[in-house]
Design brief:
Number of helices: 4
Helix content: over 70%
Distance between the termini: 30 Å
Number of domains: 1
Radius of gyration: 11 Å
Structural class: mainly alpha
Shape: globular
Oligomer: single chain
């Protein structure tokens, strides 16, 4: 789980650390869940299609506009 959390944190950093509120708006994931995902505070793997995929999609959109 720690390695996966590290990947999410690096993806967040690669997209210039957008605020959790922005990620919440763009991904549809609750802000506290976004904070938990990018902060590495999850105890178990998150749901891919409900949490990880929308988060990564929002980060990719941000990088595409750079």
């Amino acid at each position: 789980m720690q390695a996966f959390a590290g990947y999410l944190a690096r993806a967040h950093a690669a997209a210039w650390n957008p605020p959790a509120a922005w990620l919440q708006r763009k991904s549809g994931i609750p802000q506290t869940t976004v904070e938990t995902l990018v902060g590495g505070r999850r105890k178990r793997l998150p749901d891919w299609s409900e949490q990880v995929e929308p988060l990564l999609r929002a980060l990719r959109r941000l990088l595409a506009t750079a």
